[in-house]
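Here we describe the complex-level prediction in full. Unlike the single-chain runs in Section 2.1, the two entities below were treated as one system.
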Amino acid sequence: MRAIHIGGLLLLLIALGVPVSGEEPAPVPSCGDCHDEQFKVFTTNPHGHGTAVQGVIPNAVCEKCHGDGKAHIEGGGDKALIFKPAGQEGSDKTCLTCHDVTTDRISRRGGPHANAKTVNCLTCHSIHTAKATPLLVKPQLALCNTCHSTQVASFRNKPYAHRLGSGGMECSSCHEPHGRNGREMLRKTVSGELPCVNCHTQQRGPFVFQHGAFAIGDCMTCHEPHGSSNRNRLIRSNVAQLCLECHSPIGGNTLGSQPPSFHNLSLARYQDCTTCHVAVHGSDRDPQLMK
Amino acid sequence: MTIRRFFALLLFGAAATAQAQTLPPFELEAGYRWLSLKGNSGMYRTQINEHSGFLIRDFSLTTTNVGDRLRVSASDFGASPAGALRIEADRRGVYRFRLGYRDTDHYTIFPSQHFYNRTRRMLDADLEIFPEEKIAPFIGYSYNRFAGPGETTYHFGQDEFLLKQNQRDVEHEIRAGATFKFDRVYGSFTQGWRRLNGTGDFSLLPGAGAGNNSDPILGRPISATEITRHDATHVRTPFTSFYITGDLLKRVRLTGNYVRFNAESKGNENENALGSFASFAIGRFFNGANELSTSNAKNTTWRGGARAEVSVIDGIDFLAGYQREHRDLDGEALINTLYLQSITFGGVDQRDFQTVLEAKSSIDRDEDVLSAGIAARKLGPISFHAELRQSKMTVDVAPDLEEIVVPGSQGGSFERHVNTFDTNAQYTNSGLTIGLAWRSDHGDKPVFRTDFDDRDRYRFRAQWAAPKWVRLGAVAERTNMSNNDASIDFNGHIKQYAGDIEITPWPILSLRASASRFAAQSTILIRRPETFASNLSIHEENGNSREAGATLTLKRVTLDADITSFNNAGTTPFQIDRYRTRATVPIKGRYGLAVEYTKDRYDENSAFDFDATRWGVFLRISQ
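The structure predicted for the assembly as a whole is:
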């Protein structure tokens, strides 16, 4: 019975971390002793905050991504004796051990930015030297410009474009970088609509008389969000030209081709259809969307 | 004082008066910007809208004294068309809080007498409790207000009148739910409620009573002495969204999703007009009108589906999915119009004349999308993705009789199928990356005239960054689309080419340059309304862009400069030149200085051209 009591006490002491021998353990060097800069930043880093003990990040936090650091420490900081995550392999062994998440909106396996050698987590994210949130290697516009230069150029080169890079609007306001291909890469609202109505709530409707182009298509049937030559960011520079592409009664049986427009387009007042058809997104009381 | 200016002054005041010992580490850049504008101020405000005044360029503060972490960041508050504030607060395992605020000016001038000058304010706040537990509840709130004055034309009594307008739309959204994670099964459930209240007030602008049309209608001049209108709209939208993901046997991952919302709108409007008007609908002249209308509209939309990701071997996945979306829109309106002192076009039967219009409309739309593909991400230096998608859309449109001006093509049932093949491949080795992508869509019967039969998108990208001091990039994209139906004859092409180079010969100097070309052309057969003749409508954009920049980082001074020039020789020709320079220099201790020079020149060879120069001097405080 006595042996059981002593064994139980020993187990309790071990569990409480009390040194049985009474000797102080040799102090373990902290990663921060050498990596001072990374250490300072890491206390407020999403991966590090809340882990500090008396203001010091435990080595175990670093070792989650860098592996066991004992040999590296004993080797006097030998870089060959520590794992430095980089590229696809680095993403696989570190980021995706926690972030390999698939939801209704994102996929780490099937999207255009799924972890591959060309594009992987560490292509866009930097854990220790991020220049923008969320842990991005560059401010977002510059980062996306690395591959999508034609789209980014459109915001500078077209006179009417969303203001990116200032005031909180970024590429990811509308795009889900971890999304699937095509339209699945848009950051839809929580109720599943296109991201446009996150801001432009007043165009959501519903209206008694819906504009078919919006009700059956979507905002991009008529609008070009990346920058346009038209003040309303339409896909054509002239309003009448865009409208008449659908509203032209020539054969066929397509929606909106009737009724025929009978306005004289040579007169300036008829060249902008929305001068009169002001409620072009939809109206509650006028079938012709004029009020 | 706007909220944006209030925040700006608050942040600046706190930072400027703070003692080094009392505040956690922060960085602040704030100062004054001057604007010198030549040319059309309306067009400048439509495109850029940066004005003179106090400005907080940037602010960030991070502390571990509150929770585990509190981060506050703000940018462009003050004399800027768009400002943002963000607060993040966390305590590991207990809560995660995010708040974002955005304030944006919207100014738009149109040659067609329309303009508006409105502000949008958006707030989003989300709190997640016990974020690392198996079930983590969350609540959220969003606010979106879009309000301000404007001017619009209003078609009434066979003329257009210029009205001043005051619009105010306010939306509130609250949402609550939980994320859950049990071993290999995780997901999220959200229930939300959205409420939009919108009001609009309109009145005839002084001096606008003659209307835009100076010609009499059937010999009678049309004019207005009064037009007032008030409308109010209330929309209630409950919504539900849900997804669940589960891993089976480590190699199969299944995801199911469902989202539904049911928007119900109620509106009422009243309008009064006095003057001399005509109506072809009732075949009468009249001297005034009172109109009351009430309306109800509904939009029920749901979307659901399932996806599977099957990991055949490490790095090779088969992907399959099915999504179905249903949307139905119904509306009805009762519009009661009393025409005052009306008389027939022939000049007889003088009396007040009342019409009651009861309108109903409905649109049903279903879309099914089936997809299957393969993603190979670990074939040495190569990765590729290929996917087949098949979508089927069915649409039923039942327009109200009031909408039908001439019989045919204003409603009916439509069915359209689109088959898509989407593939891309990348090669990466020794600093060289080459990417190719091709997407091909083939559709059958168009719903709208602009729906394609065939659409092909090609994309090529190359990048070379072997030595660390140079990066070369090139992108080429082309999209072709067409509909060969003889009554539509639609052809569209978009071509974009870009090349860029970045050189860093020494760590202190970085040089960059790029050139790009954008060309778009679309043609489609249209009926010219004034002659009813068939014509080919041609839209063209033909633009060239050149950009160059440099960053010099010396011990005490950082200099950054960019020049951009773009000319478009398309349907609406224009030239844009932009110059931007910024220098930062430390002064003493935690203080520094930033100086900015920005110039934007817009030239479309019209009265809308402008030349805007901004100078900014900013104090930088860093703790």
